[in-house]
UniProtKB/TrEMBL annotation:
Residues 23-91 form the Domain of unknown function WSN domain. The keyword Membrane applies. The keyword Acyltransferase does not apply. Residues 851-879 have a biased composition (Polar residues). This is Domain of unknown function WSN domain-containing protein. It comes from the Eukaryota. It comes from Caenorhabditis nigoni.
Length: 894
């Protein structure tokens, strides 16, 4: 940032520029933004399905409004508004007693404002007299300060010997200039702060000077009739039901032309709100996303339909969302609130006017009123300038005590960064001190201050009058509300544009109800057709918000950094408007303007501080950091400074611009007002509230680890059946599994040899029993067939003759299905394994058999089912071992 301070009164502020507007967005930012959108999109169907995400909240976050506004909009009834318009148009007012109506309104405002004023802490005479010394401050010493040179050197990564010498010399000169401005401004700041109640006191005196002699008895009889008739006409508005959604409509409209700050609980990854829903189609097909998120994202295609509907809803409002429409809606909304307070009776109106008249005994003192307004205005401006001098001194104290001695060719980047931040603050404060009128022009009337600082003692009649009005026990509020209603209706009836704006907006509201129904229908489709495999990713709901907020901070910083020139113009035009208003002699207008305009110096300083932080962050994303991998992206969030929120005070400053535009006696450039209004509305569309992202950015490295853990480590089966890389834990498990498998195969021959011996003995026993005429007791062979001779021949075993002779009698009577044929590749397997297949290749029971006591239990079975799962199933066809057609029929229990 640089500053040009010379002899000219026009000083332009240069905001530090980080990234040019048309430069491409760094790849790492684009990738993180895509991933944040995808993560949010995955969590939405899960939340809709289990009920953890309310539909109204989702819509509200898309459009930066409140969920309650969505629910109220669904109840919108166009007929209410149409009836209201008809009633307003039909009301006939005399327009003969508008001054009385205005007087009732302002005397009520006087009553409410006086309740807030405390005059007990005004400064004493000695402290007040000391303010005269401020007029001797000479600010010409800061005309040639080289703040820009200090800032340029502070932005370098390292300094040469000559640069260090230049930097130290410039800082020394700057420190001397700042110290010469004033010795100790703290005491004067305290005195000026004590004069703040004079601002409100001046406004009370304004009300009393204009309308303090309100007297019902002095009104003409005809005017009394007009007054009664006008209040009676307002009662017709009570006959209609007021539209409850009017405020909601106003918020919808304002949300389309300025950013509303809302908490995104479920859609933090949608940085741009509803607009990001429409980009999911391209995000799903992005190669980087497909490589990172190894799941089938085509199940998110229902968001395509959602994108169409939310864009259509935005279109309904975008066409009517203008500042003019917003003002019209606000005026009608204020009218409805006033109507709701009820209508006073004629007796109540007369009672209020009599009460005010009886209290108003103090004389009207116009010179005193003007002096208090002038002193109050000068005190506010002097406080602003003296505070700026104090902050400049504080900044230079830090520079001299903490940074100056550390400046060398090996100065750390952190020290240079701190130097730059202090220069940003000092530049803004120097501008405040220099611009506007000189200190000598601010006359505080220190030689005639008794009636000011001793107002309570010097003006007891005024104190008594204002206390009397404050303590009136009458229906003052109801009467004032009705009078204000009359004033607004008169304004609406004279400006047809107001009613046209409201009607067009209500037409858009009617279309909104239909679109909201369609959006909720899409939500039902999203949760109905959600892929069951998405439920494995429920843990994403825990990281979606912090991850989305951290990414949002980066994305928004990139966006805002490209608007530095626009902010620079806005700040310069804002200060220029302040100078033009301060140059005017109309103290009343200046105070009214300042009340709406607010502290622009603080806004300018916040803007500068914001740009120092975000541009420094964005500048780190260059070189190798432009395309960091996801695992390395956490490096971008290390050592971040605290974020700064910027409040442009859009509503209030637009009102101040309108007030300046309507003030005929004020020499304010009308073209400047139009340009400033346009710039303010344009910049208000940006999200400038970065502080809410602070915690999420600090936690981003840990959040990123959790996200990677969910996407990679948990081993969730991917939608696309793509294998993830094997981790060390996976390899260890596989190695152990193969060892177990080898040992199992190695033990099979030994088990079979023992089994075969038992089998042969059992056959011999059965043969002997047959020869003796005994029938075997076990009939469990009824479901199997075994060709024993064929098996024994295959193994070159000699069978007893009794077995050959009686083989047909041993064969079971009821045949089961044939054993599964062996594949060709089975021929090379050992005979032991083949016979094991012949014996156990049939369907078996899934239950674990008990320890056998005879060969009958080895061969006997009763209608058993095959094993649905065996440990051999864990081996793929690419692994070591026999083909699945053989292995899958075995079980460890068998």
């Amino acid at each position: 940032m640089s500053i040009f301070i010379g002899r000219t009164q026009k000083i332009r502020m240069k905001i530090r520029i980080g990234i040019q507007f048309h430069s491409p967005t760094p790849e790492v930012i684009e990738n993180l933004a895509r991933l944040a959108r995808i993560v949010t999109a995955i969590t939405i169907p899960i939340g809709l399905s289990d009920g953890s995400i309310p539909e109204d909240n989702l819509i509200a976050e898309f459009f930066n409004i409140e969920p309650e506004d969505v629910r109220n909009m669904e109840k919108f009834n166009k007929q209410y508004s149409e009836l209201l318009f008809i009633k307003i148009k039909d009301i006939k007012l005399s327009n003969k007693v508008n001054d009385v109506m205005e007087a009732l309104v302002q005397m009520f405002d006087l009553r409410e404002l006086w309740k807030t004023i405390d005059l007990s802490n005004l400064p004493n005479s000695a402290d007040y007299a000391d303010l005269e010394s401020l007029r001797s401050i000479d600010v010409s010493v800061i005309e040639y300060l080289k703040i820009a040179d200090i800032q340029n050197l502070s932005r370098k990564d390292s300094l040469s010997d000559s640069e260090v010498k230049t930097l130290k010399s410039s800082i020394t000169d700057l420190a001397k200039a700042v110290e010469s401005l004033y010795v100790n401004p703290i005491k004067q700041m305290e005195t000026l702060a004590k004069l703040k109640p004079l601002l409100s006191l001046g406004k009370v005196l304004d009300f009393y000077t204009i309308h303090g002699k309100l007297n019902y008895n002095q009104m003409m009889p005809k005017d009394k009739e007009f007054l009664k008739a006008d209040f009676e006409a307002l009662k017709k508005l009570k006959e209609i039901t007021l539209p409850p959604s009017l405020d909601v409509v106003s918020r919808f409209v304002s949300s389309r032309f300025m950013h509303h700050q809302t908490n995104k609980t479920y859609t933090a990854g949608f940085v741009n709100g509803f607009k990001d829903v429409d980009t999911l189609k391209t995000d799903r097909s992005d190669a980087w996303i497909q490589d990172v998120v190894k799941y089938d994202l085509s199940t998110l295609k229902e968001f395509d339909r959602l994108g169409i509907e939310v864009v259509e809803l935005d279109g309904h409002w975008r066409s009517v969302s203008t500042y003019s429409t917003y003002k019209s809606l606000k005026l009608v909304s204020d009218l409805c609130k006033l109507i709701a307070r009820g209508s006073p009776s004629h007796d109540e109106i007369v009672e209020v006017m009599h009460g005010v008249s009886l209290c108003s005994t103090a004389p009207i003192d116009i010179p005193l009123n003007e002096k208090i307004n002038k002193i109050a205005g000068n005190a506010r401006l002097l406080y602003k300038k003296v505070s700026a001098i104090h902050r400049m001194q504080q900044s230079m104290t830090v520079v001299k005590s903490q940074l100056l001695d550390r400046l060398s060719t090996s100065a750390s980047k952190a020290d240079l960064k701190e130097m730059e931040k202090l220069m940003v603050k000092l530049e803004t404060d120097a501008r405040i001190v220099k611009e506007g009128r000189s200190f000598y022009a601010y006359d505080m009337y220190t030689s005639d201050s008794d009636k000011i600082i001793d107002f309570k003692e010097e003006k007891p009649y005024h104190i008594g009058t204002f206390n009397c009005i404050r303590d009136l026990v009458i229906e003052f509020e109801k009467v004032a509300a009705a009078a204000r209603t009359s004033v607004i209706i008169d304004q609406i009836q004279k400006n047809q544009t107001i009613m046209d704006d409201v009607k067009n907006t209500y037409e858009a509201s009617s279309n909104t109800v239909k679109t909201l129904e369609l959006i909720k229908l899409v939500f039902r489709n999203i949760k109905t057709y959600v892929d069951p495999k998405l439920t494995n990713l429920t843990d994403l709901q825990n990281v979606s918000k912090p991850f989305g907020e951290a990414v949002a901070a980066l994305v928004l910083s990139d966006v805002v950094s490209r608007r530095s020139l626009d902010f620079e113009e806005f700040v310069n035009k804002g200060f220029l408007l302040e100078n033009q208003v301060d140059a005017d002699n109309g103290d009343k207008f200046k105070e009214e303007f300042r009340a709406e305009w607010g502290d622009f110096q603080t806004t300018a300083q916040d803007i500068n501080s914001m740009f120092v932080g975000i541009t420094s962050w964005i500048e780190t994303i260059k070189g190798p950091n432009v395309s960091l991998s996801l695992e390395e992206a956490g490096l971008l969030y290390e050592n971040l400074t605290n974020f700064v929120d910027v409040d442009l005070m859009t509503h209030h400053r637009l009102n101040a611009i309108d007030r300046a535009e309507n003030e005929q006696s004020t020499p304010v450039d009308k073209k400047l007002l139009g340009e400033l209004r346009k710039a303010l509305i344009d910049l208000s569309r940006l999200d400038l509230k970065f502080a809410r992202f602070q915690n999420s950015t600090i936690q981003m490295p840990e959040t990123l680890d959790l996200l990677l853990d969910i996407l990679y480590v948990e081993g969730i089966e991917s939608f696309t059946a793509r294998w993830r890389p094997l981790k060390v834990l996976d390899l260890t498990f596989l190695f152990g599994f193969l060892i177990m498998f080898y040992l199992s195969l190695w033990s099979v021959p030994f088990s079979y040899r023992n089994m075969k011996k038992s089998y042969k003995r059992d056959i011999q026993r059965r043969s002997e029993k047959k020869l003796d005429g005994e029938e075997p007791e076990d009939n469990d062979f009824s479901e199997f067939e075994y060709d024993l001779e064929e098996i024994m021949v295959f193994y070159d075993e000699e069978m007893p003759e009794s077995v050959h002779e009686d083989h047909e009698q041993i064969t079971v009577r009821e045949r089961a299905k044939e054993p599964e044929p062996l594949e060709d590749e089975a021929k090379d397997f050992s005979p032991d394994l083949l016979e094991l297949y012949a014996l156990y290749g049939h369907d078996k029971d899934a239950e674990e058999p008990s320890e056998p006591s005879s060969t009958d239990e080895y061969f006997g079975t009763s209608s058993r089912e095959p094993h649905s799962q065996s440990w051999f199933h864990l081996i793929s066809q690419d692994s070591l071992g026999p083909p699945p057609s053989i292995i899958s029929t075995y079980s460890l229990h068998d």
